[in-house]
Amino acid sequence: MRTPPSLLSLTIDKAVIHLSHISDLSHLPDHILLDLFLRTLKAGKLNEKVLKLFVATGKDEVLLLIRALNIKHILTPVLPTNFNLAWAIRLRTFERNTCCFWTPNKLLDLDIVLPICKMSQEYIKNSEVDIVIGALQADLSSFLNEWRSIISRFHLIIVQDPDLKEELNIPEGFDLNVYTKSDIDRIVGSFGSTFFSGYSCRYFGYLISRKKYIISIDDDCFPAKDNMGNSIDAVAQHITNLTTPATPFFFNTLYDPFREGADFVRGYPFSLRSGVTSAMSCGLWLNLADYDAPTQALKSQLRNSRYVDAVITVPARALMPISGINIAFDREAMGPTLFPALKLSREGNFRWETMEDIWSGMCAKAVCDHLGLGVKSGLPYVWRKERGSAIDSLRKEWEGVKLMEEVVPFFQSVRLPQTATTAEDCVVEIAKTVKEQLGRVDPVFSRAAEAMVEWVKLWKKIGSGSSPGI
Amino acid sequence: MRTPPSLLSLTIDKAVIHLSHISDLSHLPDHILLDLFLRTLKAGKLNEKVLKLFVATGKDEVLLLIRALNIKHILTPVLPTNFNLAWAIRLRTFERNTCCFWTPNKLLDLDIVLPICKMSQEYIKNSEVDIVIGALQADLSSFLNEWRSIISRFHLIIVQDPDLKEELNIPEGFDLNVYTKSDIDRIVGSFGSTFFSGYSCRYFGYLISRKKYIISIDDDCFPAKDNMGNSIDAVAQHITNLTTPATPFFFNTLYDPFREGADFVRGYPFSLRSGVTSAMSCGLWLNLADYDAPTQALKSQLRNSRYVDAVITVPARALMPISGINIAFDREAMGPTLFPALKLSREGNFRWETMEDIWSGMCAKAVCDHLGLGVKSGLPYVWRKERGSAIDSLRKEWEGVKLMEEVVPFFQSVRLPQTATTAEDCVVEIAKTVKEQLGRVDPVFSRAAEAMVEWVKLWKKIGSGSSPGI
């Protein structure tokens, strides 16, 4: 049998309903006042007048709770420059959940807030997203048809590998632009289309996009299914990852605290709970995972079947191998930070023969760490089909494996100057240090440093304008 | 229809079988030699003589592969001091998988090795583990009965909260020692049993254990089920976590590379693939998660139902909130690093009223980072039942939430001197710095620093000996 509510409890409930008629709460004992405040919040009855009433009591515990929940009087909000629909919705979502007042710029300024806001892609306009596909194979019909229900509402930028001579086979019903070698030559001119051969062709799409978000998936990947057999909307998940804050300065053991059903755990400092802007979302792979050629050659039967239902912010200063297979990023935040710079001498058209994304990813993580941006890893998965023979690649390409032994100590020690305040500055600074320190080790690094400087020039000329460069 | 094997392929297969009769391989073209080598490995035909045959060819690619796989001639192994059964088995497992030779001390020295070794608890003797339970409630019958099938083969140390006056109710059929207030007083003498009140009573168990591994689970937790409805053996998972290497210096996007079905991803440096000793395994919670009182009070319906099938090494220098609810550690590696030092003035008997584990965990992570040990988080989950009222606790305890705002910047900047080479040294150094820097902020930190120094003394006197201190 349920215990009947106490007289006190009923009185407090009654007080919540009639708060607007009460002019002074200061005579209430502390514990009743706190209870009244919590019930007011839960009942969605906190408005500006009621808040003033509680503040006027001057009671420590209530003031602390107000501060911890980042409840504020409405001010005319000074919107930050990157305030957008996502934040506006987050504001509303937050208000709906907590019925309290706050200024959105405080949320962005790392002030104290309980993360009740939940975001999903529906709040982002489809027109804010470009899906960039590098076409390494001519027949894209099965690829695009399998992705149709997920990507057809977005604009697609398809960049044909300049080395691929055949004409692309693209099914009807997509909003897309296709760029071929002649388009690349016409637009980048003297930079030459060799910059964009093989997997690097996608970077041409990154260069000419004018959208806030870019999502890019290799053309040998297909929509995956989760543990329940449901098809995964990788685009929606990437956008959720990018539009909810990241938490690089303290690890949350229950993974993404902004997901439905999760939160920050005990001990997580309140001042870090608002997080920072998510700049990159690195998705994963079921079936054929992104292993290197030696691993896959030695374990030829190895397939990834473990669906880990998590998104993690990779902590600041933790190094990681960012794969370009299934990736999304905030183009406005990342600027020219994703680039094709490190070319292996025997680079091929299979992922395990390339390092351009790993190198660019190491730079991107260093830039994000320096600028206080977040990088997430985990969901969404894509289903990666077989392509190529690891043993054949192993015969051909070993350089990448060896280079990482030099790359990692470099990035463990690299520090960017405080004067580097934009992604563009950071890339130029990294290029300079790479040339000085790694250039002595292997000429591939000098060439990478030069390509990074070239890339920033190209990006300034073509990529950074506000109107399409095409 | 399957393509029939080529004549070359058949020839290579034949050569694998007859390798022991071949005296020279140097005339073979590079690609055939490499193929032959890979097939020899896969067929388990690599022995010392055959290895010599391949090395004698002097071919770059084969030599590189031999190096990358850490294949070595058998030397009389110089065993490191912490070489134990786990490593011996890992050696055998590795050999079984790769049929090659290596010295175990090289694996510990971060030399190059492909992580083919898989470990599980069956290789650890049950006698190497103590399960430490702090009894905050007198009736342990349902707790122990629910855990019976998982923990009954291990030795249990049950420490009764000195503030708990009733006699414990413990069912039959366990190998255990119970310690009460009078035992604590007798053993720690002048240190006094107040050190060990409430949740801190478990630390008495950490002090007197002589086992290599300690596993500790709060007495309001029960075995959980995975997504398939199978009961989780939390002890087995903790031991697996502790006996497989950790990878704190580079983040592996496919989580624990040592798990069955997983590996290191492309771009992961080979020199870091052997990992480091795992010193701590921090498990998670289904149902009532380890949230703080404000979060749980505001989201009274919030329960954790997401089972994330992953174990992660928390990267070096990433700060984290280590919870003491469901934890395991290598006692030999951690020494006196887990201690009850930070006592809140209004600390209570509910987890959200305590900070002792969070504080000790911050210190432990700093020590592990300094000593090059790994901390893992994720599996296993336990099912945490309801206890206490978050709103009642919220009325009582706010100090912990406020302290974290001071604790985090401190640990972000703390650096231990190179002269601190043991866990013991590190704790003393941290205590010194806490006193100097945080002591000025709040006397609770000075008291914590003093308790840490006291704890190390106690640990030296009672805990660090090789025979039980009881």
Automatic annotation (TrEMBL), chains A, B:
Statement: the UniProt record of this protein carries the keyword Cell wall biogenesis/degradation: yes
Membrane-spanning segments: none
Compartments, as annotated in UniProt: Golgi apparatus
Database matches in InterPro entries: RGP_fam (IPR037595)
Primary site of residence: Golgi
Top-level taxonomic group: Eukaryota
This protein's UniProt keywords: Cell wall biogenesis/degradation, Golgi apparatus
Keyword Cell wall biogenesis/degradation annotated: yes
GO biological process assignments: cell wall organization; UDP-L-arabinose metabolic process
Gene Ontology cellular-component annotations: cytosol; Golgi apparatus; plasmodesma
Molecular-function GO terms, alphabetical: UDP-arabinopyranose mutase activity
Family listed: Belongs to the RGP family.
Protein name, UniProt field: UDP-arabinopyranose mutase 5
